[in-house]
Amino acid sequence: MVNLVALQRPLMHWLMKMAGVRPYTVELEPGTAMNFWVPNETLDKPKKGQKPSVKASPTKPVVVLVHGFAAEGIVTWQFQIGALSKKYSVYVPDLLFFGGSATDKAERSPALQAECLAAGLRKLGVERCTLVGFSYGGMVAFKLAELYPDMVRALVVSGSILAMTCSVSDETMERLGCGSSSELLLPSSGK
């Protein structure tokens, strides 16, 4: 069977290059790293064999596009990145366990995702942003706005609920034979 997303990957990477963003991994702490697609102008051009480093804060208003549960960031937002990058500094994270982002922490929650996303953005020089979240990314965006209101200039959410609460999910989890939504949706490892 052919993996269509894998076949698309070189094309998506080329489109991202044309849009002026490139991949960069932020080590948040030992055992936790988050991949981002970041504006080219915020990273230096490394010498051959070296990793780029953050050289500057963004110069345009920042838009952060947070993907849903089905795919990594550039798969979800491939059509929006090029259009938005003309007027905005666009950052596209891969949430933990997507696109190579990983942690060795046992916790699995939108709160952990939001804390890691905020820490990663700060390490990239982002102080304030407009957050755009789709589906699961919307829950993460809501949580980030709740935890770090000074970081969020505006919030746009589509196809999401505020949070997966016990009252929303207990009956559903019981019908599916799972103890929690984390058990149902999140991998126990990044492999």
TrEMBL record:
Keywords of the record? Hydrolase
InterPro entries for the chain? AB_hydrolase_1, AB_hydrolase_fold, Meta-cleavage_hydrolase
Q: Which Pfam families match?
A: Abhydrolase_1
Top-rank taxon of the source lineage equals: Eukaryota
**Which segments constitute the AB hydrolase-1 domain?**
61-175
Q: Which GO terms describe its molecular function?
A: hydrolase activity
- What is the name attached to this protein's record? Epoxide hydrolase 1
